Queue: 2 jobs
Job 1
Amino acid sequence: MVGDTGYVVLRGRVICPDKALEDGYVAFEDGIIQSVGKSSELGRWPAAEYIDFSRPGYTIFPGFIDIHIHGAGYYQAAHGQVAKLARFLARFGVTGFLPTLASATRQEYLEWLHEVKAAMAQVAQVGQVGRDSAGRGRDGRGAEGARILGAHMEGPFINRLSRGGMMEERVREPDLEECEEYVDAAGGAIRLMTLSPELPGAIDLIRYLRSRGIVVSMGHSLAGPEVVAAAVGAGASHCCHIFNNCPYDNLRKEPGVRRPGIDEAALVNPGVTVEAIADGIHVDPLMLELALRSKGLSGMVLITDALPGAGLDDGIYEMPDGRVIKTRKGDGIRLKDTGALVGSGLTLPLAMRNFMQWMGLRDWEAAQLVSGNPARVLGEADSGFIEPGKRADFAVLDKDFNCVMTIVGGEIVYERG
């Protein structure tokens, strides 16, 4: 139980922005980090409660943020399941996420935006750390899970020729009036929209979205460097799942000659961050190394692009648009009837572990790609790093990258039994 001072101290190996403290601590109060340092400095910080993770293989990471996820476990990022998804994701160290919807009708997007807005209000009611004998928070409420940071609309303004796993009848050209309806319905909940910048009206739409504070992601696109440059000039700043945006037959200029597409243009544009699915199925690790060498640690974000079934055993599940999918360990998530790849079964700890192994990164470096960088993409200045003044959002992992504890805003929302 938290004592009168309200201070909580986590002890153990702590991931800082530019290093790992092997014998460190992080102290927080009222959901805000107050101090980070070596355990030998603890004497000057009054603490009512200590949580000790100073055991072999345990590491205290900044909480993970997933800006592109369609579902996980038994839950979709839609259809009344967003709040349940938030609780499930806490099992994997996720402290914030953007529920993502693609391949939807106009009415479905509107209903979903109302759902996300309501779920944000529900899950936002997370208090301080500390539990009574019933496992409730200090204020008597049970922990709610990862924060819902807003909505990611992957569509509907997508080029049908590069729609990927989306249903053709549910993608369309940009319509400013339709977009305004979404923005008004969301009441500030839309944080990210993915669109194809080469479509008629897309550049004007990008300007409108930026005027409303919405981050614009370019994706599912046949755009070349000139269009990407125009989109960035209008305010686009992010690129959806790198190397999974364009049918590569469209990049053939003539026999034996390949032209650059959206992915290449995004990699060389310093004003664009790129996101990647690090499951080894969607993108070969060599291509991810190319992206990392182009963008550097600060220019990449790891996402899951996960669907229902992620984090569970192999099985048959349903996408938010009603299509049936199957999961299998070591593979992506595929449509049951055609076998087409439509998403991943990743969790963010697994994505980070994969990236560390493939790229030879240290854990404090890889943590930027699942914590600090996604926070920066969204403008979440108070999140993403373990340093004084930031939110007390933490993911504690063991040596096998399994989550031991997740803390959101200073409250324990998951603890492994």
Job 2
Amino acid sequence: MAEYERIAAVSRFPGSIDVWWVQKDGSIQGAKWEDGVQSGEGEQWFIYELAPAGSAYHITALSRHRNTVDVWWIGEDGSVQGARLNEGEQRQRYELAPAGSAYRWGGITSVSKIPGSMDVFWVGTNGTVQGATWLNGYNWNKYPVAPEQSAYGKLTAVSRTPGSVDVFWIGQKKVKGARSEEDRLWKRYEIGSVESTNGSIKAVSTDPWSMEVFWHVQFDRGLGNPMDHSIFRAKWEEDQWQTSVAVSYGEGVHSNTGIAALSRFTGSKDLIWISKKRSVMRTVRGAVEQYTISPPGSAWENLTAVTRFPGSLDVMWVAYEGSVHGASWVEGEEWKYFDIAPPPPPPPPPLPTGQQRIDVILESMEGRVEPNRLAISGLGFQANESIKVIFTVYVNNKKVKVDTLNTQSDTAGTFFIKQEVQCNLGESTIFEVKSFGSTSGSSNKLTVSCQQ
């Protein structure tokens, strides 16, 4: 199954595309294209880093108007992070929800129900569904959408009419949803069965009176037989849901397929997915017409799509080695292919055993004096190595607590974690931090203190 949703894109106006993807080291890379605009090196795509290594898992983005884009992601510490990109201004980073708010194997999605609003939804700890709404001129308002043990996989959202939002998520053996109209009261419901909990799910509205939800289904054919993979569809019309198969297992759905669904104009819909041969596929008019967009072996598991104007379709995907590619189609013309970014450079070799390094910073949480956070980063470890981070707390020179945090280095041999700590008023508090790699051994030892 597609474990993470690592790519997102928007079109701010007919001559633009913005795309972001999460690399294997957890960094977020961005690329911007505007028709007729060249970057400093003569390429049409301007590449930049939005967030450093160790930052992200899932990612989502939307544009409220042509000069503004917001991007959100699930952090490695379970926080929900955001960045606002205003044309001509520096990027603004912010924290939408603190560490421990999001389930990192869940997902995150976003939708704008009116031009001056944004809604973001994510799977919280213990299987809750959480939401946050932003209205122009107001702060973010966070709220629960569904209680504990509701969500077991990813989620998606769509707005049919101004002021309305429907959120869908993978529940236990069911695809579930919740609807909010102007009164903000969430009404939950079920729409179909599901045999897997970590596949992709996407929703689209082709007109104000209908919605369709697509999700990846995995069937167990029994001992000795390979798993079957299909894409199911549920269509809502006249207050009723009807479920059918959008792409059957006989058509070759890959076990790691991502899904993209969009409507280019009223009544139209395009479903984009990945085949067993790792081609990017397009299904239109229900399941009547099916086309191959990219050759075999070109796509891994993550893809996204945008429409810049009613007769266009742009699809972007991540290849196995981490390079990013795309294809553009305009009604009546052939597909045009383009490369967005090369694969990331190989990770540096690990440092010799005993030379692994950590850094520790004591951060103040925004808007609060207590508690604070330890931001702990490490480098020079083996790739994907199990690491124990031990921090000892001394208050007035007396050892009062020893905690152990378990983490894992990324493919570059680095890690980054945050831990909430308490700085006691009127007392001297010191935090001593050291890490131990299962292969690399121990790192240096650092101390930080807070005097209150």
